Amino acid sequence: MPVGRRAARAGGTNKLIDEALEIYRDLLAGGHWRIPGAEMVRADCLVELGRYAEAETVFRTAYRALASSRGAEAPRTLEVAERLADLFQTVGPARRGGRARARLP
Fold this sequence. Notes:
- This protein is mostly helical.
- It has helices at 3-11, 15-27, 34-48, 52-69, 75-91, 94-102.
- It has one domain (3-102): Tetratricopeptide repeat domain (Serine Threonine Protein Phosphatase 5, Tetratricopeptide repeat), CATH 1.25.40.
- Helices cover 77% and strands 0% of the residues.
- The longest helix has 18 residues, at 52-69.
- It is flat, with a radius of gyration of 13 Å.
- The model has no long low-confidence stretch (mean pLDDT 76).
């Protein structure tokens, strides 16, 4: 089970994840690829909490950052694209999820 889901179930909050993100941002150089990875955990937590619009925004931001820093075909970039597509399948029109999946190799 992804960390975000465990955090959401454990406390119903993403306070600890937010604190961890702040630590990452303070310690790592701007644009470091690990920051979007940590943001994906936050987005997973938001999905578990039913905060889908917020999760979509975080996933999109993470995708753009990873695509820019690591490349569109990098495994982590593809992972966030897959999670965004899964979110669209869950809460959005099926065609949005299909379009997001179509971008995956």
